[in-house]
Amino acid sequence: MNQTLVFDFDSIEQRSLEGGPNTVAPLRIDTESEQVLPFAGVLRAADLLSRRILLLDAQLLDGAFFLTLGPDRIRQILARPEFLDSALAVAARKPSLAESLRAMILDARNPSVLAGFEFSSLAAFGAGTVPLTERLRVRSSARLRSCEPRDVARTVAAELQAASESEDPEYVVEEPTGAFAELERAWQSWLAEADGGRLRIQPWSGTFDLPSALERRPVPAALQDQGGPVEAALTVLSGTKNRSDALAYLRLHSSELSEHKRLLQDWWMNAYFDALASMHGTNWLRFSADPGTQESLPRRGFRWRRVPSAADSPTLQIRGSLVSTLGGMPSPVYALLRHQARAAILEWQEHPSQKTSDGLAYAVSQADATKSRRQARRAVWTRVGLTLGPALIGTVAADAFSSLFAGVGSALAAVVVGVPLAEFLELHESGKKKMRAHIHFPAVRQ
């Protein structure tokens, strides 16, 4: 696998992740999520499973974790002490991150005002208590359009603070303060990373064809033949091309859709990522639970292409303990894992399959195995006992029976059974079932 998008790094989905020992204070914004995954674990798992993680500019510039942690902590989590360009690439709508940030909040349809961009990361800085979408849409864009690239982060933060503090579109904040000043510093750290050549920036490419992706995505069985609000939602979402509009519709009708809301959102978002993957000529991974949508896809083999065809869904649902295992690893242990498991990692990346993922899972489980002196000595004595036991039994049997055949039979039994049983135990521990408890692809033929 070459560059790979990650569903869980969508700016909305990042709110459902949680901090861990390799991050700053635990950060979880979306308290409605039933599943909580460690951000460090998702980032490292994606790092192992792909040659390079492909981030969209909005996932970085509006990503709660990427902004609150910053480049230095991301380097620490990924065990990349110098450059991130070997692990991360950013697909940007403009040649630079600064211009991409400017474009995110400029309304292409009405250049005179700001766009109603919904910044999901504001809550991570303690500044997401006031809905800003409608307030931004009536604010003049003149200040942002005319500022120098070096002032874009400061200007955007000031505009967001002004919209947060007042409904008056003429209200001005000259310099961002408090949480908005922190947001500006977070943006500046990533802009400096890109400007310094330590982060790879690549242009958007291809065509974003969401309608075709929606047609290819089967509607989950739980949503079919529901009628009423669910059928109406499917009709509306099938014709919705903008993510903010789709999520706004689901929020507005959440009480009517009740338990179907999350399933509808997952179905639409999966199609959204299908379209993004096709646009950028890549595939995408999902680590969070996907109730119903992935299971509705036909079971298939691994067919990785440089550009996924329209007939293929380029997504893989990942299950197992890989994410939690990697999330709890100290950074030096993860660095050692990457070095020791380099052959297994390369084999998976060049020939992705459930078989090569078993080898990668074994490498991860071995790196995570920590034994005390007492446990190690107990394992040695167990191996000695399982080795000598059959031989002793064979000797006793030979003494008890004087016949040649009985003696030969007991000797053969001692040889056959005397193969250390501990080796069989080790084979069991490294078997398919054990390995697929770490990494499992439920929609792929085994």
Note down, in words, how this protein is organized.
The chain is an alpha/beta fold. Among the domains are: 136 residues, no CATH class; 57 residues, no CATH class. It is 51% helix and 7% strand. It is built from 21 helices and eight strands. The strands form two sheets. It has a six-stranded parallel β-sheet with strand order 6-5-4-1-7-8. Helix 9 crosses helix 13, helix 15 crosses helix 17 and helix 16 runs antiparallel to helix 17. The protein is globular and about 95 Å long.
Q: Topology of this structure?
A:
Blueprint: E1 3-6, E2 17-18, E3 37-38, H1 39-49, E4 52-56, H2 57-61, H3 64-78, E5 88-92, H4 97-104, H5 133-136, H6 142-146, H7 152-165, H8 178-195, E6 200-203, H9 210-216, H10 228-238, H11 243-252, H12 254-257, H13 261-280, E7 283-286, E8 315-317, H14 322-327, H15 331-340, H16 342-350, H17 354-368, H18 373-400, H19 404-417, H20 421-429, H21 432-435
Parallel strand pairs: 1-4, 1-7, 2-3, 4-5, 5-6, 7-8
Strand content: 5-15%
Return Rg in Å.
27 Å
Note the gap between the termini. 19 Å
- Note the main sheet: 6 strands, parallel
User: Major sheet: order of its strands?
Assistant: 6-5-4-1-7-8
Q: Given the structure, what is the number of helices?
A: 21
The succession of helices and strands, N to C, reads EEEHEHHEHHHHHEHHHHHEEHHHHHHHH
Q: Globular, elongated, flat, extended or rod-shaped: what is the shape?
A: globular
Number of strands: 8
Q: How much helicity do the residues have? A: 40-55%
- What does the average pLDDT come to? 79
Task: Please mark out the parts with pLDDT under 50 across 5 or more consecutive residues, or reply none.
Answer: 20-34, 298-311, 442-446
Q: Given the helix and strand composition, which structural class is it?
A: alpha/beta
